[in-house]
Write a structure and sequence with these properties.
Order of helices and strands: EHHEE
Number of domains: 1
Number of strands: 3
Radius of gyration: 13 Å
Shape: elongated
Helix content: 10-25%
Number of helices: 2
Largest sheet: 3 strands, antiparallel
């Protein structure tokens, strides 16, 4: 299993530029969480020749979320 924390752009593609806005922020404000939501992708890359499709995805949605 492998995983990534990503910030998606308007077309649901990973965006490093958006991710940088959340890097090293220990306590993101509600406004930052709303404007730059983070997603956690878990995928299995062992021996797979298929494209990297997430097996599980969750997004930060609640006030207690630290993503």
């Amino acid at each position: 299993m492998d995983s990534e924390v990503v910030a998606l752009d308007e077309k649901s593609r990973p965006s490093f530029g958006r991710l940088q806005r959340r890097m090293h922020v220990q306590r993101p404000t509600a406004q930052l969480r709303a404007t730059v939501p983070m997603s956690f992708f878990v995928f299995d890359g062992l021996g797979s020749t298929a494209s990297r499709r997430p097996a599980f995805r969750t997004s930060s949605a609640g006030p207690s979320s630290r993503l």
